[in-house]
Amino acid sequence: MSAKRNPARELLFGDLWEYDPAPETAKAFIDERYGLFINGKFVAPKTKKYFDSISPRNEQKLAEIALAGSSDVDAAYQAATTAFKSWSKLPGTERAKYLFRIARLLQDRAREFAVAETLDGGKPIKESRDFDVPMAAAHFFYHAGWADKLDHVTPGRTLAPLGVIGQVIPWNFPLLMLAWKIAPALATGNTVVLKPAETTSITALKFATILQDAGLPPGVVNFVTGAGETGSAVVNHPLAAKIAFTGSTAVGKAIQRALAGTGKRLTLELGGKAANIVFEDAPIDQAVEGIINGIFFNQGHVCCAGSRLLVQESVAAAVLAKLKIRLRSLRTGDPLDKNTDVGAINSKAQLARIQALVAVGVAEGAEIYQADCNLPEKGWYFPPTLFSNVSQSHSIAREEIFGPVLSILTFRTPEEAVEKANNTHYGLSAGVWTDKGSRILKMSTELKAGVVWANSFNKFDPTSPFGGFKESGFGREGGKQGLLDYAQLV
Ligand code: NAD
Q1: Which of 51, 120, 172 to mutate for ligand 1's pocket (most ligand atoms within 8 Å of CB)?
Q2: For residues 370 and 328, what is the distance between their CA atoms, to the nearest angstrom?
Q3: Under-50 pLDDT residues of the chain
């Protein structure tokens, strides 16, 4: 402990103490330069071009990443097509062994992967260590369990793989999104060409070394790195049997248009603007924790973040007061510090987007509250923010901000809560806080959201299908439903 005074802690706990920094010390083992991972090997890109991966924590360059052009993407698809011939014929028990091995190797290197994920993406180490990496391993374990039991998914029918799957993922959960995509594809006998997001390619490329160590046959999984143009080459390649995309609604719509009439399968996991609904009979302190976790987890870079709080009018003032106190105790800063609750914003561009939307919120007349916090001088950071007096027509109640910003609206009746919650073009998730079980059941049938959490928020499990309604996309990831999206019935 140091003698530095922390007014927020003083107010909460009456003490004068502030924690000393507690940086994670495990090594991330990041190479200076990464090639593309094609046919089981790292290869130089035919474009001969590389781009920098910058740490949002301090704006320092972490590594050079290969820029894949269309001929590199083609090489990856050729490798995956060749590999599909034998991989798809392997008995499920054999595929399961590879998946188990991958999961165990990831567990062995969990600390290293957590640090790499935090350096590359900016999320707090306690989240990459306790959520992203263990959950990624859990997806491989879960799907390893399914690989030899596919006959039980649809009794009496046989599930057959689709072929080569083109997968494009975003930057908010780089390793976890990779696991969500690769594990079910491999369990069902498909092969993969995956493109990570351009700001967060490092853990995918480190993961390639796990695939090598697991002895996965060459070409079963291929990684091509780059930005939108590379993604477009992955999506439009004629050898793709299916495209699985997670990212923004705008890009998802463009992909849907591009694939229309091609016969390729498509699943889209897109944006969200989730309502987190608190009734007056809810356990308020527990709900406040759920609200904080719902919006500030991963700096609010969460597609299913509870970014719209709908609170019943009779308890609105009490909830807001408690939220302000809780906000003051959040530690925002160096994501590598084990005490940090809110880390760095993933990129300069995302920070600019958050700043612009917050400015619109202020200009449109919503009331802003930000706790004092000493943000690091270098790196991209944004203080946790609350907006009260928000109405349905405000941009901050409609647009996905994808940052640590909560918009607070009120309601009087359950009907009004449902109407406001569903008044969005998104439909990915929602939360309901109430003491009444019957109300939870009624609300969850009326809310147009793929996931509805009851007296909790942001809870995930590989056995539980995840996906959206409306402009949040279609298709499911996880559970039996997720397997069906990677297979055909024969
Ligand atoms: P984005 O759409 O800009 O990028 C996602 C990926 O698509 C990146 O890899 C990017 O390089 C690639 N890409 C960009 N243009 C492309 C194109 N024309 N063709 C093919 N690929 C292209 O989204 P983002 O900013 O990286 O991620 C944030 C978005 O992702 C948010 O809207 C968030 O809600 C959404 N998201 C959804 C889920 C979900 O499960 N529903 C999960 C995580 C993130």
Answers
A1: 172
A2: 8
A3: 1-3
